Amino acid sequence: AYRGILPKAYGEGTHFKIPYFQKENIMSVRFEPKVIKSKTGTKDLQTVQIDLRVLSRPQEHRLAEIFTKLGPNFNERVMPSVANEVLKSTVARYKAEELLSKRAEISGEVRAELEKRAGTFGIDLMDVAITHLTFSREFATAIESKQVAQQEAERQQWLVVKADKVREAAVIRAEGEAEAAKIVNAAIAESGQGLIEVRRIDTAKEIAGALAQSRNVTYLPSGKSGSNMLLNIGTAQ
User: Fold this and answer.
1) pLDDT at res. 1
2) Sorting pLDDT into bands at 50, 70 and 90, what band is 55?
3) Which residues contact 139 (CB under 8 A, 6 or more apart)?
4) DSSP alpha helix (H) spans, the chain
5) Are 128 and 110 in contact (CB under 8 A)?
6) Which residue among 57, 87, 98, 159 has its CA within the 20 to 30 Å range from the CA of 48?
């Protein structure tokens, strides 16, 4: 008598069958990747296109049941519909911005619910991840404008901090100059004009050193009744 699909699934190896009466149906039990695309709405009524990558395989002890109820292309029949339903119900609880900030959390929720739903059909899942999010053009423009405004606000804040630092540096510099002036005045009061004369001699030395390195300046010393002269001799063209 014809018995249909046998309830036992045979693994790899050598097995016997009755010619003309029995036919084998080979099914892969490896984890196979599949990308499922779903267009759904968020809590704040934004439309988003989601790409969901799923690694799935059939449960070996339920292969006969899966083949009988769903056929050899069970993955194409079950996963797209189940994944779309799970994505729509999960994404509807979040705002569009939260899909970016809470991406890992949402993927975890989708995986937990998808594993539960796929398990009722005899399908195991190894990994579930949201690989791509595509928002509407209006929302993308709004996000870009928000980022530009945020960057401008951060720049203005940096300018305020910079101005405060410059102001503090000016105050410190002024206090230092005032303190230096007090020290100089105290030194002059204590030693008379000697300090000023020393400063004048030091300055004259620096000027003389700078002029000595210039080839276009000639120094002419004068006699007792005259004054010294500096001649600027230009180079011939």
Assistant:
1) 44
2) very high
3) 46, 96
4) 63-69, 74-91, 98-101, 103-119, 137-191, 194-212
5) yes
6) 57
Sheet holding 123-135, edge to edge: 32-41, 47-58, 123-135
Task: Report the candidate in 46, 48, 26, 28 with the shortest Cα–Cα distance to residue 37.
Answer: 48
Query: What are the structure tokens assigned to 218, written together?
Result: 């000639």
Q: Quick check: 32 and 75 in contact, CB under 8 A?
A: yes
Nearest Cα to Cα of residue 38 among 79, 97, 94, 83: 83
pLDDT attached to residue 155 = 83
Best CA proximity match to 95, nearest among 145, 141, 45: 45
**CB pairs under 8 A, 24+ apart, for 66-75?**
66/27, 66/121, 66/122, 66/123, 67/5, 67/25, 67/27, 68/4, 68/5, 70/121, 72/25, 72/27, 74/121, 74/123, 75/32, 75/34, 75/123
Q: Cα-atom radius of gyration of the chain, to the nearest Å? A: 43
Which is nearest to 48 in space by CA: 101, 114, 95, 112? 95
Which residue is it, tokens 């569009």? 96
pLDDT at 62 over 60: yes
How distant, in Å, are the alpha carbons of 19, 128, 150, 191, 226 from that of 146?
Answer: 71, 31, 6, 67, 77
- Total-model pTM: 0.53
If we measure between CA atoms, which residue out of 120, 4, 113, 17 comes closest to residue 68? 4
10 Å Cβ neighbour count for 63?
Answer: 21
φ, ψ for residue 96, nearest 5 deg: -60, -40
Among candidate residues 96, 28, 31, the one with its CA nearest the CA of residue 66: 28
- Residue 237: its pLDDT value, please? 47
Q: How far is CA 76 from the centre of its chain?
A: 36
